[in-house]
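Researcher: I need the complex structure. Ligand is zinc ion. Inputs:
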Amino acid sequence: MNCIFCQIANKEQPADFVYEGDNVIAFKDIKPSAPVHILVVPKKHIDSVKNLEEGDRDLVSEVIFTAKKIAKEQKFDEGYKLVFNVGRKGGQIIDHVHLHLLGGF
Ligand code: 5GP
Ligand code: ZN
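Model: Output:
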């Protein structure tokens, strides 16, 4: 599939990984917009939050808990932002669900 985040998940494209689990990966954003900018991404290809299904509830929860864990491990959990951009008008460019973890302010 011609999806950059699927390719990163499949190790077909490089990325600076900070976490890999069975269902979720996290890697540094190539163009950071915060001192720490990590993308937390389900391995499963889902194009948008808009198209999440009931069966994706646990996976989305795991994405958020992974972000929380990374913030704690990297010691910036005093304060951070979690952002899902949804749709072009919402600023979404990559059509594979991802959570922006922004911190280190
Ligand atoms: P969006 O605007 O879709 O919510 O966010 C996509 C994010 O992915 C952007 O912050 C962009 O910098 C990042 N990004 C795009 N392509 C790549 C890539 O190939 N590698 C990494 N690590 N980040 C990427
Ligand atoms: Zn994908």
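Model: Summary of the prediction. The first strand starts at residue 17 and ends at 20.
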